[in-house]
Amino acid sequence: MSSPITRKSGTPLYIQVKESVLAEIKRGEWKAGDKLPTERELSVKLKVSRNTVSQAYQELEAEGILSSVQGRGTFVCDRDNAVRLENRKELLLKIIDVAMEEGMQLSFTLEEFVELTALRAKEKIDLLRQVRVVFIECNREQVEYFAKRLQTDSGVSITPLVLDDFRQDVGRWQPTVASSDLVITTFFHYDEVKELLGVRKNVLAIALDPQIETIVRIARIPAGKKIGLVCKSDNFAGKVLLALKNAGIDNLAIEVFASLSSQAPITEILSQLDVVICSPGRRREVEQYAHRRQEIIEFVYKPDVASINLLRAALIDLRRQ
């Protein structure tokens, strides 16, 4: 690849990899239908981590540039036929048109079609509200934030469970887990969660990645700024620092402030910082005591596109059984 990867540029490595892949496609080096190097091959060639290449590929797949096929690899999409995010509405309308035509061939009127589809959608919504899900993760910030977002978006009842709490008192949490329809965890903890459950239970592993906007904002922090990471646990802080390192952001001195118990320390700490990176669980507190000139960056993790689609399908399938 002709576009060099520069670690000290201030631009996250995975964005540089993404732009390099796009440049190759625009130059015609890789055409529609061409198979790209594997994540491992490209990471070796560019001398970056495999996770960096994976993030770049996921972004390009979400934008309709690339398409991954299980067991075969990653390919360049036909741009004229690619299903891009901005065309989802158009695609859905085509699906509805086909359904209407088939309904009319079955002698249903358009009014009956509208009535039946509205009824079916309501049934699905009601069914989702009956689904009970447990989300198990290793740090409290992540598990609480994700559970709240998922519950708001889908109406599904989510019980957040910190992995350490589950380890220390399996007996207490076992009834909650056993009565749930689905257990969600991350790929990193999947094997341990399965072992802790000790019963046959639906467990779905998802990938949680840092939000792109968060990484970009941190990468753009000018040199010399005093930066602090304010969160609830050392576990979360460690994940943030590792994520920044994997993105190639290793030129910033970030001081960690976790598990602060009173207002006085956080007020004193914030007064010494130019930029505050905070976990979702501490954002409101940080905003309350920060001074006006400080930049506040909330460090948010979110499921990747494939995980979101997999989760949606799993929730719908639960009530078909």
UniProtKB/TrEMBL annotation:
Q: Which residues form a coiled coil?
A: none
Tell me which PROSITE patterns the record gives.
HTH_GNTR (PS50949)
Q: Where is the signal peptide?
A: none
- What InterPro entries is this protein classified in? Bact_HTH_transcr_reg, Tscrpt_reg_HTH_GntR, WH-like_DNA-bd_sf, WH_DNA-bd_sf
Q: What's this protein's name? A: GntR family transcriptional regulator
Gene3D superfamilies from the UniProt entry: Winged helix-like DNA-binding domain superfamily/Winged helix DNA-binding domain
- Where's the HTH gntR-type domain? 11-79
Specify the species: Tumebacillus lipolyticus
